[in-house]
Design brief:
The chain is α/β, with parallel strands linked by helices. Helices cover about 55% and strands about 10% of the residues.
């Protein structure tokens, strides 16, 4: 470049110096904005603007402090007034009227002074620590405590209350069946059972049994009949002492059940429930469960007496066959007879039988009745009968209705009364007649009455066939006998 060119450039620079300065400042500003992070990181110098902001903030804080100093301490003044009033005689009189307790003035003032000091201490602690982390920490602790209280009060407490109610109910309901102090073992001499004005209720508002009184002599068979819900099963539960009678007494051979031990009492019973429950074990183990020390031969003997041995031997594994959960692999009749064998192996003094309501065939029912007879032979026996034809030979039949014994006697005596027992009998025979086919001649419009052979002759169709008798002929003969008996019964009623 020549000297003239340099001179022209110098002149140009002098003319455009303000523009160059402005351009340079703008360029630097753009560069600083684009590289703000690098600039502040490498050279953290507080700008003049930042210093001015800090000064303004300090001025505002000073103003706020001065305003607070000039502000009237309303809270402190209010607390002082409240304390002064509470410490006066008027405050003492109000507190006494609320709590209804006489309070000495000296003691009262000491309490109010301590309370005021405590409140003021809390107030000062708050003001001293409100800007520190201690207050935030305390708030977090309070929140945690509140959540814990919510858990205890709304989640845990209802569960605890329900458990308390349940345990209380169990205690009051079953406490009576515990052995009382000084209880003695039951001594069985014959098995005489006596109910004397026994009362019981599951719900105090509704009595279940009312003044139940009867006597079962040793070796007798007592049948309980009646409609569902009348209280038949409850009578046996009281005898087995699942519950204690709320009034009256129950005695065995003169010994009150509440005075004997539960173990000795229940060892005296053999129970065949309506719905037997077997374990998912072998037949041998299920029968032996009633008396664990029983031998295999004793188990087989009990099964023979229960008329189930031959059926068991047809199973692939015999006595080691598994019965499934609750005995699902067995039929209703087989299940009932295994339960009878279990009761037999106990060698009980008193037998409690609850007939199954499930429908079974005639042959199976005959086998079950035969097993029942063997089990009850020579033993005091109680039967809840659902088929009245099975308890005709009972020594005593009790008709239970709404928790009361309304009729009692033998089969013939109850028929002579022509009361509830006859009504139940008629319902069963009519239902049976309606479910079977009749042999009435076509077009005659008359039906030949079906006759229960066991009612008139005591001969069952099975026994008649075994003896070679003509069952049809027996039906015709007994039909005439039944007609005569019905006419006689009607004459007695009128």
């Amino acid at each position: 470049m020549s000297f003239r060119d340099r001179q022209n450039v110098s002149e140009l620079d002098e003319e455009n110096q303000p523009l160059l300065a402005e351009h340079t400042s703008a360029s630097r500003a753009d560069a600083s904005g684009a590289s703000y992070g690098s600039v502040t990181g490498a050279n953290p110098v507080v700008s003049k603007t930042d210093n001015e902001d800090e000064d303004n903030l300090e001025d505002e804080e000073d103003k706020e402090v001065k305003q607070q100093q000039r502000r009237i301490p309303y809270k402190e003044f209010g607390l002082f007034v409240l304390y002064t009033w509470l410490g006066s005689s008027a405050g003492l009189a109000m507190v006494q009227s609320l709590v209804n307790i006489p309070i000495e003035q000296y003691s009262y003032r000491a309490i109010t002074a301590a309370s005021f000091n405590h409140v003021m201490s809390l107030h000062m602690d708050y003001h001293n620590n409100k800007d520190s982390g201690e207050l935030i920490k305390s708030i977090d602790q309070g929140r945690t405590l509140n959540e814990l209280l919510d858990l205890v009060v709304f989640d845990t407490a209802p569960i605890v209350i329900d458990l308390f109610i349940a345990f209380t109910y169990i205690y009051y309901l079953f406490d009576a069946v515990f052995d009382k102090k000084g209880a003695l073992p039951l001594r069985i001499s014959g098995g005489k059972v006596q109910f004397s004005d026994a009362c019981f209720s599951y719900d105090p508002r509704k009595p279940t049994l009312v003044d139940v009184s009867f006597t079962a002599e040793a070796g007798q068979t007592v049948a309980l009949v009646g409609e569902t819900g009348g209280g038949k099963s409850t009578i046996l539960k009281l005898l087995f002492r699942f519950y204690n009678a709320t009034e009256g007494s129950i005695k065995i051979d003169g010994q009150d059940l509440r005075d004997v031990t539960l173990s000795s009492l229940r060892d005296a019973f053999g129970v065949v429930p309506q719905d037997p429950s077997l374990f998912n074990m072998s037949i041998m183990e299920n029968v032996r469960y009633a008396r664990l020390e029983a031998t295999d031969d004793e188990v087989k003997e009990a099964c023979e007496n229960a008329a189930i041995h031959d059926k068991i031997m047809t199973f692939p594994d015999g006595y080691m066959s598994k019965v499934g959960e609750r005995g699902v692999k067995l039929s209703g009749g087989e299940l009932q007879r295994v339960s009878i064998a279990r009761a037999m192996i106990r060698r009980p003094h008193i037998v409690l039988l609850d007939e199954a309501t499930s429908m079974i065939d005639t042959d199976t029912e005959a086998q079950i009745q035969e097993a029942f007879s063997r089990l009850s032979a020579g033993r005091t026996t109680f039967i809840i009968a659902h088929r009245l034809a099975t308890i005709m030979d009972a020594d005593l039949i009790l008709v239970v209705n709404d928790g009361r014994i309304i009729e009692r006697g033998t089969h013939q005596e109850l028929f002579a009364l022509n009361g509830k027992y006859v009504s139940l009998w008629s319902k069963q025979t009519s239902n049976k007649s309606g479910s079977e086919d009749t042999d009435s001649p076509k077009g005659s419009g008359e039906e030949v009455p079906l006759v229960d052979l066991t009612v008139n002759t005591g001969i069952t169709p099975t026994s008649a066939r075994n003896d070679g008798l003509d069952v049809d002929q027996l039906n015709r003969v007994n039909a005439d006998e039944t007609a005569v008996e019905e006419n006689t019964l009607n004459d007695n009623v009128t």
